[in-house]
Amino acid sequence: MFPSWVSTVSSIGMAVGPPLVYADQATSIIRKKDSTGFSRDVCAILLIANITRCFFWLGNRFELALLVQSILMILAQLALLYICIVYRPRTSPENFGASHRPFSFWQWDSYAQYVEFLAGLILCSAILFLIFGRSEIFVSILGFVALGLESTLPIPQLISNYKQRSLYGFRASTLVGWVGGDSFKTVYFFLQGSPLQFKVCSIFQLSIDFVFELVAAIIAQRLYYGNPPPATVLVDDEDLEQALALAEE
Length: 249
Description:
The termini are far apart. By secondary structure, this protein is an all-alpha fold. It has twelve helices and no strands.
C-alpha cells in the first residue's frame, strides 16, 4: 500500500490537473484573439459530463477529489467557452446564421444562451434526481452517462481537424494532457477503489485513445497537416463582408 502522502498528492493532482490542461489552450486563444482550430464541442462534452457527474456524486459518494475535479472543470470550461465565443472565428456558422444542427445546438450567438442551456440541464437533472435519486439503477445510469460521455472527448476535435485540414489553434499541450491524464486516472481509479463506472469508462476511454486510435489519429493529423492557418483564417475582410451580405439576403 502506498504511503498516505503519496495518496494525498495523487488526489490533489487528480483534482487540479485535468482543469489545468486547458490553461495553455485558453492562453493561446487570448494571445492570438482567435479560437480557430479548437472545437467548442469539447467544452460541451466536459460541461455536460461533469454536471451529470456532480449529481452522480449525490447518489454515490465517491472520492471528494473527483467531485472537486468536476467543479473545477466546470468553472474552467465555462471560462474557456467564454473565451472561445469572444474570439470566435469570423467564419463560424452562427455569424452567418448557417448552423445545420437541430436548434443550432452549441452554435448559438451569445454566451448567455449557453448558460441558459446549462441552467436548464441542471434544473432538469435536479428534478429527475429528486424523483429517482433513491434508485440505485438511476444513480448507476447517471454515472455511466457522465463518464461515458466524457470518454468521447477526442472525437469532436478529430472532426474539427479533419474539416480544416490543419491543427492550427489546437495546442499540443492539450493532446498530451488527454493521453497522460487518461492513463493516470485509470490507475488512480483502480488504486482508490472508485465506483465501477469510473473504472469501466476509464478503460473505455483508453481504448478510444489507443485501440481506436483517436488520439493517435490527432497525432497523425499533426504530422500530416501540420499547423498552418487554414484557408478560413486567411479570408480577407472584404471577402468576409461580401459573404455576410450574401447571408443576409
